[in-house]
Input
Amino acid sequence: MRLLLLADTHVPARARTLPEVAWDEVDRADVVVHAGDWIDIGLLDALEERAPRLVACWGNNDGPAVRERLPEVARVTLDGVRLAVVHETGASAGREKRMASAYPDTDVLIFGHSHIPWDTTTPSGLRLLNPGSPTDRRRQPQCTYMTATIEGGALDDVQLHRLPAKKS
Output
């Protein structure tokens, strides 16, 4: 099972749509995961139409239209892997301990908010993933997203993809 992990797309505030390479990944994915800050309902509609399956939550910049359709925390079990998707996890200091305590029955927590890619595993085995943003790099050198696979009840092949810098 191939996963595409997105967060902080901020469409149309930071981009009119996802980069073409991200849409190509949507077409290859079995499940698209989005960790909030959509901004506009249009991208949610487009991903629901195009992705075979969408697992998503709302973020702090999302208004009532997005919040009416998505939960604050999305939970799903995919081939035995228990995922939770949330936008904010607080400060990076102490994140592993806080999230292991907050999500004890979760194998993988996918989050956003900071636009900073993150991939760690807590002592309890909880994997924390932030794909960054494919449209708004902020202070990062490049925009990013992640892909992963789930096979045999395990998350595998987590890859951070860096998008080429836009030409001015």
About this structure: The chain has a mean pLDDT of 95.
